[in-house]
Amino acid sequence: MAPPSSTDLLSKSASLRALAARFTEAIPSALLEQFTEPAETDPLAVLADAPKVFKAQATKAGLLLVNKPFTPSAIHGILQDLEGRVVPALFASSAQVFGRKVILGEHFANEVTDLLKDVLGSVGILMDAVDGTVKGMVSKEGVMVAVGKVYSACDELVALANGGVVALLMRKVKSQMELIEDAISELQEWEEESDDGDSDEEEDEAENQDAASEQDRERSLEELTGGLSLDTPDRVPKKRADILRLVKGACPQASLINKLLIAMSKRRIKRFSSQSPPFATEEAKAAQIEGIETLSEVVKLTYSIQSNFDEFAASLYDLDAEQAEIYLGVVTGNADTITQLIFKTWDGKEDEFTEWLRTWRRMMGKASIERTQASNS
């Protein structure tokens, strides 16, 4: 039998590309269909292995593509292995995670499917390099770029598997905390502007006790319209006392929520001892499932806090105090729910952080009362 030719190589490339596309289109439903539960298999270890094999084969293919003489038969053998073993293994290993969503968590399972799509997409990029080399349309640099795409996609999947559930959740919470901190900084700037405005108004009143001059009235009008202008959306008009009171009242609560999220990450999420199958006992499995459910809810609430805090800020821009109050209520309510979920340690005991949470609740309640009183004044 004659060795595979360039034509055979192009045919195998098209076949492999089609396989990767079918797998991609089948995500996530086919992941559940392919899921099996071997008794002694750690799904995270399996998840990390398949991308490493793909990287190794991509490296071999890249070297064969750029070195002379060009040997279609050698590259054909690599593509055959990718089609028959490696790409199906990538899909099967991801199925082992996705099928254990209740154990590893929805966030982790969804992250795996997203990264799997990237890895499968890199198959097509590598095949473009193969086809281009056969046709004399791709340079050595182009081949190396394609191999680099495979590396990047595979490395992310390996890092996810090696880092595990806790590392992913920490990263997700941190990303939301950074956005919340940015919003808090902006809120504090508004508060400082309003304080400066109050001071200026008191000085003007002392200097002009008889009556406001025409210049004062023009400045007040300019200030009000400036706050309403689309060209200056970062200003809150000083004449809207309700908005200013809301900004001042929200700042202490926002600061407390930020402190809660920081402490929660260190004292609860980071300390969760996530386990992967196989479990030594049914109790260990139950503890993992319960802990993952709690963490998943905490992460969802953190995302909700960030989203509603953005809506709160947008309502301030729109000078809609009533709607801003609603969004702020959702934010503080979500934060309170988080404290309930993480009130005790993962083995159900109270600790020093539990006492910290009690103090946090008292301070949050006090800040809420003060904000309500200020709004009603």
Automatic annotation (TrEMBL):
Source superkingdom: Eukaryota
Biased composition (Acidic residues): 189-208
Cyclin-D1-binding protein 1-like N-terminal domain segment(s): 50-193
One GO CC term on file: nucleus
Pfam families: GCIP_N
Family matches, as InterPro entries: GCIP-like, GCIP-like_N
Record region (Disordered): 189-233
Protein name: Cyclin-D1-binding protein 1-like N-terminal domain-containing protein
Provenance organism: Microthyrium microscopicum
